[in-house]
Amino acid sequence: MKLILLFPLLFIITACVFQNSQKAGNTGSQNQMVNLGEVRDGMALHPAGVFIMGSNYKKNEAPQHEVELDAFWMDIHEVTVSQFREFCRQTGTKFPVQPDWNSENHPLVNVTWNEAEAYARWAGKRLPTEAEWEYAARFRNSAAEYDYGTQNLFGRQFGNIADESLLRLKLQFPVKSNYDDGFVFTAPVGQYSPNRFGVCDLDGNVLEWCGDWYAGDGYKEGRIMNPAGPENGRYKVIRGGAYNRSGYYLRVSYRSWYPPHVRFDFIGFRCVRSAQPGNRNSELKMTLLNE
Predict the structure, then answer these.
(1) Whether 77 contacts 269, CB under 8 Å
(2) What is the pTM of this model?
(3) What is the pLDDT of residues 181-194, one digit of tens each?
């Protein structure tokens, strides 16, 4: 389904910057896309906006509905091993055991929802709502599916997903054919092209905990303002792609869920912070709607 991105007030400026970036060529994954928002202290500002959330692929992704969000800041990168180690050092929290293939500048894995939420509070932030997460992800590619195309793809213009590199270790595993991102497991943060606000790895590397309890019966009809999920539940929402995910998982609207106490080597997290009223760009309205 073709979608339209309407960027009020920023269109002319963005167009000029984009033309200049095209002349400069693709010289680095961090600089291949134009940032539309402000970036500060490792977080990107996502202006207030309206978008179509969900899809008609699965019952728990339906119905598609309009969501209106206030402006928020989102971590550019998933929380790294190094960052979480510092949190543990300062708070006396037990550091979760990491796989031998994970490194300090890679996303933390084997982290429970409870641990992720504790880190977010310590950092003066919070976990993203499911709606905030999908809003940010749709600014990488506004269609329901991540844009991995049909051609042979190599390099780091896309994400770290289950691909040809994983077959080097696991000979029988469902992967994206003809795509090689260069990493069998997690990659260092910031290796791949960001979304239009400068946020990386929403479509790969590790799945990410969200703040919401999971509602398996799908969404409510009509426009919703700043949804935050059910008041309680059994499972927490997980979003995104990961180094061991391919196929139907590579959908912006795809929803996963796990109990908040579990830990896996393909789950991590990132944080957000609500934008303060009067913040520059906080009054701008982005619209991401179906034609």
Answers:
(1) no
(2) 0.81
(3) 888 899 999 988 88
